[in-house]
Amino acid sequence: MQNAPGAGGGDDTSAPDAQAGPTAGGDSDGDGVADAIDNCPTMPNPDQHDHDGDGRGDVCDVCPHLVDAGGDADGDGVGDACDPRPTEAGDRIALFEGFYGPIHWTPVIGNDWQVQNGSVVQDDTNMQHQIVGGLSLGNVFIEARVRVDQLTQYPQARKSVGVVLGYKDTNDYFFCGLAEPQGNPEVEGGRVGDGQYNYNQDVFGAQMPGDWTTLQARITQPPNDVAHIDCTGHRGQIDAQTGYDDDADASGDIGLRTNGADASFDYVFVVEVPPPPPSSLAPRHAACSLFDHAHAQATHSRRPGDDPAGRRAQAGSIGSRSDQSAPAARRGAGLSHRAARGQRDARGGAPG
Ligand SMILES: [Ca+2]
Ligand SMILES: [Ca+2]
Ligand SMILES: [Ca+2]
Ligand SMILES: [Ca+2]
Questions:
Q1: What is the band of 109 on the pLDDT scale with cuts at 50, 70, 90?
Q2: CATH code of domain 98-343
Q3: Would you call the peptide bond into 308 cis, given omega within 30 degrees of 0 as the criterion?
Q4: What's the mean pLDDT in 2-13?
């Protein structure tokens, strides 16, 4: 995932030489695009996709989802502008999906999704829908750009749109997304499987549908310790974040999810991060330091995990039917989050 070095120079007038790097008249990577106009001259990419339009093709762009200078200080292939640990090597881009054409993700809840105009779209507002990418990952950072287009017209139905991490089955996964449990959009992060979520009660300044929101989530789980998810949303000038701890396995697949909402996802970017060493829990809440690229001031942010115990009773925005069983099995510091599990909407999700 390194950027093409450009060695060999475009001014080489000799015949193409396989060892000389890109040449003006050659096609070093044999992808059918001449080096002089190939946006990844040393990596085959006949489609020339360049999602962020910065001149580096997706396959050789160290931050394929955002315009960057190509810097990668720790040399791990994840650009400085998007590296969860920009000065520590060992991270890797596990997935970049720009949704250029039909996708082959698996619908595990609800129906197939459609790719339209460069986004993957779920337009059914009547129920839950969830697709997963078919990856097996450990600790991950995931970013997705999403726009909610329409909500279910049932006022009492839960509404949420977000990314799925640590997916193992439809009863066991983490979630980070936008939700609108009481008419106010917010971010929430948590796990389906024990029914607990954290809610950022500092709301976004608009209804859930409308402009694009960037969601970022990172799961951190030291060996033999609790998993922590940081969940952040960036929308216009407003950031919101929350966090959640769970004594559960954070590894698994990644995916996308809607409930009671019509939404479009522009891209998904996933970095797999080595687990931290045991007992290196601090700083558990350092996620905001990851996210200072291309985003506005965190005028509405709050520390994840400091959600008071007395959060709203209407807890269940995600609406999985499975999230109302199984007692919480959480421990450790910062686990003061006692969502009103038993009071969530027993209907579970949108009508139907
Ligand atoms: Ca190429
Ligand atoms: Ca690019
Ligand atoms: Ca880029
Ligand atoms: Ca890096």
A1: very high
A2: 2.60.120.560
A3: no
A4: 36
101 phi/psi in degrees, rounded to 5: -155, -170
- Nearest-angstrom CA–CA distance, 125 and 130: 13
- What separation in Å is there between the alpha carbon of 149 and the centre of ligand 2? 26
Cα 78 to ligand 2 centroid, rounded to whole Å: 13
Look at residues 324, 349, 298 and name the one whose alpha carbon lies nearest to residue 128.
349
> How far away, in angstroms, is 46 Cα from ligand 1 center?
6
In this predicted model, what pLDDT tens digit does every residue of 135-184 receive, in sequence order?
Answer: 999 999 999 999 999 999 988 888 999 999 999 999 999 999 999 877 78
| 40 Cα–ligand 1 center, Å | 4
Q: Which residues contact 203 (CB under 8 A, 6 or more apart)?
A: 184, 185, 186, 240, 300
From the CA of 70, which ligand is nearest? 3
- What is residue 22's predicted lDDT score, i.e. its pLDDT? 53
User: Which ligand lies nearest to the CA atom of residue 79 in the structure?
Assistant: 4
Vertex 345 angle, CA 341 and 348, to 5° = 100
Distance CA 51, CA 57 (A): 8
Note the pLDDT tens digit of each residue in 59-108. 999 999 999 999 999 999 999 999 999 999 999 999 999 999 999 999 99
Distance 26 CA to ligand 2 centre (A): 22
* 344 CA distance to ligand 4 middle (Å): 42
Rounded distance from Cα 282 to ligand 2 centre (Å): 34
Going from N- to C-terminal start, the domains of the chain cover 1-6+28-85, 98-343
pTM given for the model: 0.76
